[in-house]
Amino acid sequence: MKKRILMIGTGGTIASEMTEAGLAPGLTGESFLDYVPAVRRLCQVDCVQVCNIDSTNMTPGHWLTIARAVEEGYDRYDGFVISHGTDTMAYTAAALSYLIQGSRKPIVLTGSQKPIHMDITDSKTNLLDAFTVAWDGRIGGVTVVFGGAVILGTRARKTYSKSYGAFSSINYPVLGVVQEGRLVPYICPPAGSKPRFYRQLNQRVSLVKLIPGLPADYLAFALAESDGVLVESYGVGGVPAGDQGSFYPLIRQAAAQGKTVVVTTQVQNEGSDLAVYNVGNRLKTDLGVLECYDMTTEAAVAKLMWALAQSRDHEAVARLFYTPVAQDILGRPE
Fold it and tell me: Is 285 an annotated catalytic residue?
């Protein structure tokens, strides 16, 4: 008997058609299969369309809808393929990694840089590769399959805006590759006997990217509007001091109000270490700021939304944030 795979359509470039104002999603997941007949020979496929949007318009509400579609079909299907736009795919993959934990079944996101109806496109290969991984079953949990690579959902990032090999695995090796229609696994992440589904996210999370000379007012606004703020800093991490020292009282006031501040880095590889420099050390020792270490910004944003939905107590949030989920944080010193 063929394995049963549920395809969840969300739109994106893969589903786009040309309009007078540029590419816009219009095709459904069901219509994709007409372009890739090998998928139906491989497995039995059912399709559900939860939305049909450019991934620029993706929101945490859509993440919850996608997770709910997986949860509702979990016992009836052997795996899941989610077609998605590339621009925010890494955020969705990270979010699903926290909303669906410990899945032994594959939950695979894929998409393309060119629409599926074009003569020259990466969509057909990516789609067949994604179904191959979902059908194979050896790599469970949330992954991104793109350009032949199988990337852990918490480690994926779009690093090329146009090239077919658009996604990279940040601070973690790829889990495997798809070659000549077969999965070659390198790492099979551990999975629990039963998945844990979460149904809430706290969307009052924002991100402030530091640039030289940025007024502290920008951070003040983000803190006023949010329950949790990530500060994307430089190098191993820190916030301006000296003449720019008003950042510190703002963070101290936010902590007193029960808000969570997390520092990450703009540097893609190797992660943060606030203990190294005075501009970062004081944040940890005096203000209780959390840091991302080797987590991606995409994963940190999604994880903070998930953690703040579980608790607003600072110690509880810190405990959740620092507890590894799907290999999302490995570089934190004990």
Answer: no
Cβ pair 270, 294 in contact under 8 A: yes
As beta bridge partners, residue 11 has 53
Distances in whole angstroms, Cα of residue 118 to Cα of each of 9, 114, 125, 235: 19, 7, 13, 42
Q: Could you say which of 10, 13, 121, 296 is catalytic?
A: 13
Q: What angle do CA 333, 287, 223 make, to 5 degrees?
A: 110
CA distance 87 to 80: 20
- Taking only the tens of pLDDT, the chain with its 334 residues reads 899 999 999 987 776 665 555 555 566 677 778 888 999 999 999 999 999 888 899 999 999 999 999 999 999 999 999 999 999 999 999 999 999 999 999 999 998 888 777 778 888 899 999 999 999 999 999 999 999 999 999 999 999 998 999 999 999 999 999 999 999 999 988 877 789 999 999 999 999 999 999 999 999 999 999 999 999 999 988 888 865 568 999 999 999 999 999 999 999 999 998 888 677 788 888 888 999 999 999 999 999 999 999 999 999 999 999 999 999 999 776 5
Total-model pTM: 0.94
Residue 65's CB is within 10 A of a number of other CB atoms, namely 14
Could you write out the DSSP letters of every residue in 227-248?
SEEEEEESTT-----GGGTTHH
Return phi, psi of residue 30, to 5°.
-60, -40
